[in-house]
Amino acid sequence: MRIGFVVGQFPLLSETFVIGQMAGLLRHGFNVNVVCNGISDYNFADREQEPLATLLKETRDWWGAAAQLRPAIGRLPARFRDKASTALDMSSVGRLNECDVIVAHFGHNGARAARLKKWKRLRPPIVTIFHGYDVGVPLRERDLRRYNDLFEYGALNLTVNDFFRQALVEAGAPEAKVAVHHMGIDLRKIPYEWKSWQGSPLQLISVCRLAEKKGVEFALRALAKLRAGAPGLAWHYTIIGDGPLRQELEVLASELGINEQVSFLGSLAHEDVKQWLRRSHVFVLPSVTASNGDVEGIPVALMEAMAAGLTVVSSYHSGIPELIEDQKTGFLAAERDVDTLANRLHFVAEHPEQCERIALQARRKVEAEFDMESLDNDFAEILGRFAKSRLVA
Protein backbone atom coordinates (compact mmCIF):
# COMPACT_ATOMS: atom_id res chain seq x y z
CA MET A 1 0.00 0.00 0.00
CA ARG A 2 1.19 3.49 -0.81
CA ILE A 3 0.57 6.31 1.67
CA GLY A 4 0.95 9.94 0.61
CA PHE A 5 1.85 12.38 3.38
CA VAL A 6 0.92 16.04 2.90
CA VAL A 7 2.98 18.25 5.24
CA GLY A 8 4.54 21.70 5.55
CA GLN A 9 8.31 21.97 5.30
CA PHE A 10 9.99 18.60 5.64
CA PRO A 11 11.81 17.46 7.66
CA LEU A 12 11.60 19.73 10.71
CA LEU A 13 13.26 19.37 14.11
CA SER A 14 10.05 20.56 15.79
CA GLU A 15 8.02 17.84 14.03
CA THR A 16 10.01 14.68 14.64
CA PHE A 17 6.70 13.00 15.53
CA VAL A 18 5.83 13.18 11.82
CA ILE A 19 9.05 11.37 10.88
CA GLY A 20 8.39 8.83 13.64
CA GLN A 21 4.93 8.05 12.28
CA MET A 22 6.26 7.68 8.74
CA ALA A 23 8.97 5.34 10.02
CA GLY A 24 6.30 3.25 11.73
CA LEU A 25 4.46 2.79 8.45
CA LEU A 26 7.70 1.84 6.69
CA ARG A 27 8.18 -0.88 9.32
CA HIS A 28 4.68 -2.15 8.54
CA GLY A 29 5.60 -2.53 4.87
CA PHE A 30 3.85 0.57 3.51
CA ASN A 31 5.41 2.70 0.79
CA VAL A 32 5.56 6.33 1.93
CA ASN A 33 5.53 9.36 -0.38
CA VAL A 34 5.84 12.92 0.93
CA VAL A 35 4.49 16.10 -0.65
CA CYS A 36 5.69 19.18 1.21
CA ASN A 37 6.11 22.96 1.21
CA GLY A 38 9.83 22.79 0.58
CA ILE A 39 12.59 20.40 1.66
CA SER A 40 14.30 21.94 4.68
CA ASP A 41 17.94 21.88 5.73
CA TYR A 42 17.60 19.54 8.70
CA ASN A 43 20.84 19.91 10.64
CA PHE A 44 20.11 17.67 13.62
CA ALA A 45 20.13 14.29 11.85
CA ASP A 46 22.17 12.49 9.23
CA ARG A 47 20.12 12.64 6.06
CA GLU A 48 21.89 9.49 4.83
CA GLN A 49 20.59 7.42 7.75
CA GLU A 50 17.22 5.73 8.03
CA PRO A 51 14.42 6.57 8.02
CA LEU A 52 15.27 9.97 6.49
CA ALA A 53 17.31 8.46 3.65
CA THR A 54 14.31 6.49 2.37
CA LEU A 55 11.78 9.22 3.05
CA LEU A 56 13.73 11.98 1.31
CA LYS A 57 14.04 9.87 -1.84
CA GLU A 58 10.25 9.95 -2.03
CA THR A 59 9.78 13.61 -1.08
CA ARG A 60 8.63 16.28 -3.55
CA ASP A 61 7.62 19.93 -3.28
CA TRP A 62 3.93 20.59 -3.90
CA TRP A 63 4.76 23.02 -6.68
CA GLY A 64 7.80 21.40 -8.23
CA ALA A 65 9.86 23.88 -10.23
CA ALA A 66 7.28 26.60 -9.48
CA ALA A 67 8.23 26.53 -5.79
CA GLN A 68 10.38 29.60 -6.35
CA LEU A 69 7.11 31.55 -6.72
CA ARG A 70 6.06 30.76 -3.13
CA PRO A 71 7.35 34.03 -1.54
CA ALA A 72 5.65 36.17 -4.19
CA ILE A 73 2.36 34.28 -3.91
CA GLY A 74 2.52 34.60 -0.15
CA ARG A 75 2.39 38.39 -0.52
CA LEU A 76 -0.82 38.36 -2.58
CA PRO A 77 -4.21 39.32 -1.07
CA ALA A 78 -5.87 36.28 0.51
CA ARG A 79 -8.43 35.69 -2.27
CA PHE A 80 -5.82 35.71 -5.05
CA ARG A 81 -3.30 33.82 -2.92
CA ASP A 82 -5.76 30.95 -2.37
CA LYS A 83 -6.59 30.72 -6.07
CA ALA A 84 -2.95 30.76 -7.14
CA SER A 85 -1.97 28.23 -4.48
CA THR A 86 -4.75 25.82 -5.40
CA ALA A 87 -3.89 26.07 -9.08
CA LEU A 88 -0.26 25.21 -8.34
CA ASP A 89 -1.32 22.41 -6.00
CA MET A 90 -2.74 20.69 -9.07
CA SER A 91 0.83 19.95 -10.14
CA SER A 92 1.09 17.31 -7.39
CA VAL A 93 -2.33 15.71 -7.90
CA GLY A 94 -0.99 13.04 -10.24
CA ARG A 95 1.58 11.93 -7.66
CA LEU A 96 -0.99 11.91 -4.86
CA ASN A 97 -3.51 9.96 -6.94
CA GLU A 98 -0.99 7.12 -7.15
CA CYS A 99 -1.45 6.65 -3.39
CA ASP A 100 -4.05 4.52 -1.63
CA VAL A 101 -4.57 6.98 1.26
CA ILE A 102 -3.54 10.59 1.89
CA VAL A 103 -2.37 11.53 5.41
CA ALA A 104 -2.32 15.28 6.06
CA HIS A 105 -0.53 16.56 9.15
CA PHE A 106 -2.18 19.73 10.50
CA GLY A 107 -5.65 20.90 9.57
CA HIS A 108 -4.62 23.46 6.95
CA ASN A 109 -2.87 20.76 4.92
CA GLY A 110 -5.96 18.57 5.18
CA ALA A 111 -8.11 21.47 4.00
CA ARG A 112 -5.72 21.97 1.10
CA ALA A 113 -6.17 18.36 0.01
CA ALA A 114 -9.93 18.54 0.58
CA ARG A 115 -10.24 21.42 -1.92
CA LEU A 116 -8.73 19.17 -4.58
CA LYS A 117 -11.15 16.43 -3.53
CA LYS A 118 -14.06 18.88 -3.79
CA TRP A 119 -13.03 19.72 -7.35
CA LYS A 120 -12.88 15.99 -8.14
CA ARG A 121 -9.15 16.12 -8.87
CA LEU A 122 -7.99 14.05 -5.88
CA ARG A 123 -9.19 10.44 -5.58
CA PRO A 124 -7.70 8.77 -2.44
CA PRO A 125 -9.39 9.18 0.98
CA ILE A 126 -7.93 11.90 3.22
CA VAL A 127 -6.97 11.28 6.86
CA THR A 128 -6.04 14.51 8.64
CA ILE A 129 -4.24 14.81 11.98
CA PHE A 130 -4.82 17.96 14.08
CA HIS A 131 -2.01 18.91 16.47
CA GLY A 132 -2.39 22.31 18.17
CA TYR A 133 -2.36 25.74 16.56
CA ASP A 134 -4.49 24.35 13.72
CA VAL A 135 -7.32 24.08 16.28
CA GLY A 136 -6.41 26.73 18.85
CA VAL A 137 -5.90 29.70 16.51
CA PRO A 138 -9.10 29.29 14.45
CA LEU A 139 -11.01 28.46 17.66
CA ARG A 140 -9.93 31.80 19.14
CA GLU A 141 -10.83 33.55 15.89
CA ARG A 142 -14.21 31.75 15.80
CA ASP A 143 -13.24 30.43 12.38
CA LEU A 144 -13.18 26.64 12.57
CA ARG A 145 -15.57 26.80 9.61
CA ARG A 146 -12.43 27.14 7.48
CA TYR A 147 -12.40 23.33 7.68
CA ASN A 148 -15.92 22.84 6.29
CA ASP A 149 -14.61 21.31 3.04
CA LEU A 150 -12.43 18.97 5.06
CA PHE A 151 -15.34 17.96 7.28
CA GLU A 152 -17.35 17.11 4.16
CA TYR A 153 -14.76 15.58 1.84
CA GLY A 154 -12.22 14.19 4.30
CA ALA A 155 -12.56 10.54 5.31
CA LEU A 156 -11.33 10.89 8.91
CA ASN A 157 -10.07 13.63 11.22
CA LEU A 158 -7.76 12.44 13.99
CA THR A 159 -6.98 14.73 16.91
CA VAL A 160 -4.09 14.25 19.32
CA ASN A 161 -6.34 14.90 22.31
CA ASP A 162 -10.00 14.85 23.28
CA PHE A 163 -10.12 18.63 23.77
CA PHE A 164 -9.54 19.07 20.02
CA ARG A 165 -12.01 16.32 19.13
CA GLN A 166 -14.78 18.10 20.99
CA ALA A 167 -13.88 21.43 19.37
CA LEU A 168 -14.13 19.97 15.85
CA VAL A 169 -17.44 18.24 16.57
CA GLU A 170 -18.89 21.47 17.99
CA ALA A 171 -17.70 23.24 14.80
CA GLY A 172 -19.70 20.86 12.61
CA ALA A 173 -17.46 17.86 11.94
CA PRO A 174 -19.54 14.65 11.84
CA GLU A 175 -18.83 12.66 15.01
CA ALA A 176 -18.28 9.52 12.96
CA LYS A 177 -15.41 11.28 11.17
CA VAL A 178 -13.53 12.48 14.28
CA ALA A 179 -11.48 10.33 16.67
CA VAL A 180 -8.58 10.73 19.09
CA HIS A 181 -5.23 9.28 18.07
CA HIS A 182 -2.34 10.17 20.38
CA MET A 183 1.17 10.86 19.27
CA GLY A 184 3.56 8.57 21.12
CA ILE A 185 7.20 7.90 21.95
CA ASP A 186 9.57 4.99 21.40
CA LEU A 187 9.76 3.52 24.89
CA ARG A 188 12.43 1.03 23.83
CA LYS A 189 14.85 3.96 23.58
CA ILE A 190 13.94 5.53 26.92
CA PRO A 191 14.91 3.47 29.97
CA TYR A 192 13.25 4.36 33.26
CA GLU A 193 15.72 5.67 35.83
CA TRP A 194 14.68 7.30 39.08
CA LYS A 195 17.21 9.70 40.62
CA SER A 196 16.60 11.06 44.10
CA TRP A 197 17.65 14.60 44.95
CA GLN A 198 17.74 13.93 48.69
CA GLY A 199 20.74 15.84 50.01
CA SER A 200 21.70 17.38 46.67
CA PRO A 201 20.63 20.43 44.61
CA LEU A 202 17.37 19.94 42.70
CA GLN A 203 18.04 19.91 38.96
CA LEU A 204 15.13 21.29 36.93
CA ILE A 205 14.99 21.29 33.13
CA SER A 206 12.82 22.46 30.24
CA VAL A 207 13.32 21.32 26.66
CA CYS A 208 11.17 23.33 24.28
CA ARG A 209 10.98 26.06 21.70
CA LEU A 210 11.10 29.39 23.50
CA ALA A 211 7.69 30.58 22.35
CA GLU A 212 4.79 32.01 24.33
CA LYS A 213 2.70 28.84 24.63
CA LYS A 214 5.50 26.94 26.37
CA GLY A 215 5.07 29.08 29.49
CA VAL A 216 8.76 29.33 30.42
CA GLU A 217 8.11 32.86 31.68
CA PHE A 218 5.89 31.42 34.41
CA ALA A 219 8.45 28.78 35.34
CA LEU A 220 10.98 31.58 35.91
CA ARG A 221 8.51 33.64 37.94
CA ALA A 222 7.57 30.61 40.05
CA LEU A 223 11.22 29.83 40.74
CA ALA A 224 11.79 33.43 41.82
CA LYS A 225 8.94 33.00 44.32
CA LEU A 226 10.43 29.70 45.43
CA ARG A 227 13.77 31.37 46.08
CA ALA A 228 12.10 34.16 48.06
CA GLY A 229 10.04 31.71 50.12
CA ALA A 230 12.76 29.09 50.62
CA PRO A 231 16.10 30.87 50.26
CA GLY A 232 18.03 27.91 51.64
CA LEU A 233 16.78 25.52 48.98
CA ALA A 234 19.46 24.57 46.42
CA TRP A 235 18.29 24.24 42.81
CA HIS A 236 19.33 24.93 39.23
CA TYR A 237 17.15 25.36 36.15
CA THR A 238 18.47 24.39 32.70
CA ILE A 239 16.57 25.57 29.60
CA ILE A 240 17.31 23.82 26.30
CA GLY A 241 15.87 25.28 23.13
CA ASP A 242 15.76 28.48 21.16
CA GLY A 243 13.05 30.72 19.82
CA PRO A 244 11.70 34.25 19.58
CA LEU A 245 11.48 34.79 23.34
CA ARG A 246 14.97 33.70 24.33
CA GLN A 247 16.46 37.15 24.83
CA GLU A 248 13.36 38.36 26.65
CA LEU A 249 13.46 35.36 28.97
CA GLU A 250 17.16 35.83 29.71
CA VAL A 251 16.44 39.45 30.67
CA LEU A 252 13.54 38.31 32.87
CA ALA A 253 15.74 35.81 34.72
CA SER A 254 18.19 38.62 35.45
CA GLU A 255 15.44 41.02 36.58
CA LEU A 256 14.06 38.33 38.90
CA GLY A 257 17.50 37.87 40.43
CA ILE A 258 17.78 34.18 39.57
CA ASN A 259 20.06 34.35 36.52
CA GLU A 260 22.91 32.63 38.39
CA GLN A 261 20.64 29.62 38.94
CA VAL A 262 19.33 29.50 35.36
CA SER A 263 21.23 28.32 32.25
CA PHE A 264 20.04 28.93 28.67
CA LEU A 265 21.79 26.38 26.47
CA GLY A 266 20.03 27.00 23.15
CA SER A 267 19.22 24.19 20.71
CA LEU A 268 21.18 20.97 21.17
CA ALA A 269 21.47 17.71 19.28
CA HIS A 270 19.12 14.97 20.46
CA GLU A 271 21.92 12.93 22.05
CA ASP A 272 23.05 15.95 24.06
CA VAL A 273 19.47 16.57 25.20
CA LYS A 274 19.23 12.98 26.43
CA GLN A 275 22.41 13.46 28.46
CA TRP A 276 20.99 16.56 30.13
CA LEU A 277 17.74 14.76 30.92
CA ARG A 278 19.73 11.99 32.64
CA ARG A 279 21.32 14.61 34.91
CA SER A 280 17.98 16.17 35.82
CA HIS A 281 15.26 15.45 38.38
CA VAL A 282 12.27 17.61 37.39
CA PHE A 283 10.89 18.51 33.96
CA VAL A 284 9.03 21.84 33.92
CA LEU A 285 6.60 22.85 31.14
CA PRO A 286 3.80 25.16 32.38
CA SER A 287 2.16 25.62 28.96
CA VAL A 288 -0.34 28.43 28.32
CA THR A 289 -2.72 29.51 25.58
CA ALA A 290 -0.81 32.06 23.49
CA SER A 291 -2.25 35.48 22.70
CA ASN A 292 -3.06 34.34 19.14
CA GLY A 293 -4.82 31.20 20.42
CA ASP A 294 -1.97 28.77 19.78
CA VAL A 295 -2.08 25.78 22.11
CA GLU A 296 -0.30 22.51 22.77
CA GLY A 297 -1.63 19.12 21.75
CA ILE A 298 -0.04 16.81 24.31
CA PRO A 299 3.68 17.66 24.35
CA VAL A 300 5.93 14.76 23.41
CA ALA A 301 8.62 16.27 25.65
CA LEU A 302 6.42 15.60 28.69
CA MET A 303 5.88 11.98 27.62
CA GLU A 304 9.63 11.46 27.23
CA ALA A 305 10.38 13.00 30.62
CA MET A 306 7.74 10.84 32.33
CA ALA A 307 9.08 7.73 30.60
CA ALA A 308 12.63 8.51 31.75
CA GLY A 309 11.68 8.83 35.43
CA LEU A 310 11.67 12.60 35.85
CA THR A 311 8.98 14.28 37.94
CA VAL A 312 6.91 16.52 35.66
CA VAL A 313 5.39 19.88 36.55
CA SER A 314 3.00 21.36 34.00
CA SER A 315 -0.40 23.05 33.66
CA TYR A 316 -4.11 22.47 33.12
CA HIS A 317 -3.85 23.26 29.43
CA SER A 318 -5.38 21.71 26.31
CA GLY A 319 -4.74 17.93 26.36
CA ILE A 320 -2.07 17.91 29.09
CA PRO A 321 -4.51 16.68 31.80
CA GLU A 322 -5.13 13.64 29.56
CA LEU A 323 -1.48 12.74 30.21
CA ILE A 324 -0.83 14.11 33.71
CA GLU A 325 -3.12 13.69 36.70
CA ASP A 326 -2.21 16.16 39.42
CA GLN A 327 -0.31 14.56 42.31
CA LYS A 328 -0.72 11.08 40.79
CA THR A 329 1.40 11.09 37.64
CA GLY A 330 2.84 14.59 37.98
CA PHE A 331 1.92 18.06 39.17
CA LEU A 332 -0.34 20.66 37.54
CA ALA A 333 -1.21 24.30 38.09
CA ALA A 334 -3.69 26.51 36.29
CA GLU A 335 -2.30 28.45 33.34
CA ARG A 336 -0.25 31.45 34.48
CA ASP A 337 -0.88 30.61 38.17
CA VAL A 338 2.59 31.46 39.47
CA ASP A 339 1.71 30.96 43.15
CA THR A 340 0.39 27.41 42.68
CA LEU A 341 3.27 26.57 40.37
CA ALA A 342 5.76 27.76 43.00
CA ASN A 343 3.96 25.70 45.66
CA ARG A 344 4.09 22.60 43.46
CA LEU A 345 7.82 23.08 42.90
CA HIS A 346 8.39 23.60 46.61
CA PHE A 347 6.53 20.37 47.41
CA VAL A 348 8.56 18.46 44.83
CA ALA A 349 11.82 19.84 46.22
CA GLU A 350 11.00 18.69 49.74
CA HIS A 351 9.35 15.31 49.01
CA PRO A 352 11.56 13.18 46.77
CA GLU A 353 10.23 9.96 48.33
CA GLN A 354 6.64 10.78 47.31
CA CYS A 355 7.79 11.90 43.89
CA GLU A 356 9.40 8.51 43.30
CA ARG A 357 5.99 6.82 43.55
CA ILE A 358 4.48 9.46 41.26
CA ALA A 359 7.26 9.03 38.69
CA LEU A 360 6.68 5.28 38.55
CA GLN A 361 2.97 5.81 37.95
CA ALA A 362 3.87 8.31 35.23
CA ARG A 363 5.97 5.71 33.43
CA ARG A 364 3.09 3.24 33.59
CA LYS A 365 0.70 5.86 32.19
CA VAL A 366 2.95 6.46 29.18
CA GLU A 367 3.42 2.73 28.64
CA ALA A 368 -0.35 2.18 28.65
CA GLU A 369 -1.46 5.04 26.40
CA PHE A 370 1.46 6.67 24.59
CA ASP A 371 3.64 3.82 23.36
CA MET A 372 4.63 4.58 19.78
CA GLU A 373 4.77 0.95 18.70
CA SER A 374 1.21 0.28 19.82
CA LEU A 375 -0.05 3.55 18.31
CA ASP A 376 1.74 2.81 15.01
CA ASN A 377 -0.01 -0.56 14.89
CA ASP A 378 -3.37 1.14 15.38
CA PHE A 379 -2.59 3.77 12.73
CA ALA A 380 -1.48 1.16 10.20
CA GLU A 381 -4.73 -0.71 10.78
CA ILE A 382 -6.78 2.47 10.22
CA LEU A 383 -5.01 3.27 6.96
CA GLY A 384 -5.22 -0.34 5.84
CA ARG A 385 -9.01 -0.28 6.22
CA PHE A 386 -9.33 2.86 4.11
CA ALA A 387 -7.00 1.51 1.45
CA LYS A 388 -8.91 -1.78 1.21
CA SER A 389 -12.28 -0.04 1.06
CA ARG A 390 -11.00 2.09 -1.82
CA LEU A 391 -9.78 -0.99 -3.70
CA VAL A 392 -13.16 -2.68 -3.21
CA ALA A 393 -14.97 0.45 -4.40
From TrEMBL:
- Give the GO molecular function terms: glycosyltransferase activity
Q: Does the keyword Lyase apply?
A: no
Q: Which residues form the Glycosyltransferase subfamily 4-like N-terminal domain?
A: 15-188
Q: Give the Enzyme Commission number.
A: 2.4.-.-
* Residue ranges annotated for the Glycosyl transferase family domain, each copy included: 200-364
Highest taxon of source: Bacteria
> Is Zinc a UniProt keyword of this protein?
no
Which UniProt keywords are present, listed alphabetically? Glycosyltransferase, Transferase
A UniProt-annotated Pfam family? Glycos_transf_1
Please state what class of enzyme this protein is.
Answer: transferase
Name listed for the protein in its UniProt record: Glycosyltransferase
